[in-house]
């Protein structure tokens, strides 16, 4: 069973998400939080596998709550799936930098939310090709945003090719098809890149790719 914690300051939203999660046969709701501080405390006490985290919450916002969860060694296995309004939410990149494994828009279809929970709980990042790349590129071009350390300088030419495709939102199978590799080889490349760049997951690889200039907004696919 996937142990899910729901963090949102709107009671009705939490209740709706809880009903949906409980309707799935492979997951259960282990807690509900109305503030970021409650989310951090419950993630620790309930040993949740995944937190569905709203960004805008009182006391402690979802970004800081995500950062605290990701930085706590006792919660190393806890994944965070961030909720955003997409076009109006200017904090999604900071949430990814803080350690979130992906994001969803709040009006996503119920089946897509359940699929996203399974994907992130399994250790993958939820990065859709077009919207994710455009969103990240948009905010990385905004003056004043802090930059992460590290970059692709130590990667091989093949690894840089793979990183570019990761930044476009391709999964391992699609990367393999694009480069004429086996899926296992593509997966191995991605794992090595994450190790070299000390990246938590694919979401952080996307950030590095854009910040380093390896991938640029508006560049051809």
UniProtKB/TrEMBL annotation:
InterPro entries: CheY-like_superfamily, NreC/VraR/RcsB-like_REC, Sig_transdc_resp-reg_C-effctor, Sig_transdc_resp-reg_receiver, Tscrpt_reg_LuxR_C, WalR-like. Keywords: DNA-binding, Phosphoprotein, Transcription, Transcription regulation. The keyword Transcription applies. Residues 148-213 form the HTH luxR-type domain. The keyword Acetylation does not apply. The modification 4-aspartylphosphate is found at residue 54. Residues 3-121 form the Response regulatory domain. It holds the Pfam family Response_reg. This is Response regulator transcription factor.
């Amino acid at each position: 069973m996937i142990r899910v914690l729901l963090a949102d300051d709107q009671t009705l939203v939490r209740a709706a998400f809880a009903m949906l999660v409980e309707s799935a046969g492979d997951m259960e709701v282990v807690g509900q939080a109305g503030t970021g501080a409650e989310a951090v405390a419950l993630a620790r006490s309930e040993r949740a596998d995944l937190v569905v985290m709203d960004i805008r919450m009182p006391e402690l916002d979802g970004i800081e709550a995500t950062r605290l969860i990701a930085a706590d060694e006792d919660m190393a296995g806890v994944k965070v799936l961030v909720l955003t309004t997409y076009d109006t939410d200017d904090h999604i990149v900071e949430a990814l930098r803080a350690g979130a494994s992906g994001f969803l828009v709040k009006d996503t279809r119920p089946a897509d939310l359940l699929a996203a929970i399974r994907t992130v709980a399994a250790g993958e990042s939820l990065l859709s090709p077009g919207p994710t790349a455009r969103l990240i590129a948009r905010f990385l071009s905004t003056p004043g945003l802090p930059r992460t350390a590290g970059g692709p300088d130590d990667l091989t030419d093949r690894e840089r090719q793979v990183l570019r495709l990761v930044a476009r939102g391709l999964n391992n199978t699609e990367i393999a098809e694009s480069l004429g590799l086996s899926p296992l080889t593509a997966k191995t490349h991605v794992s090595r890149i994450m190790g070299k760049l000390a990246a938590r997951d694919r979401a952080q690889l996307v950030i590095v790719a854009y910040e380093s200039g390896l991938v640029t907004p508006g560049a051809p696919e």
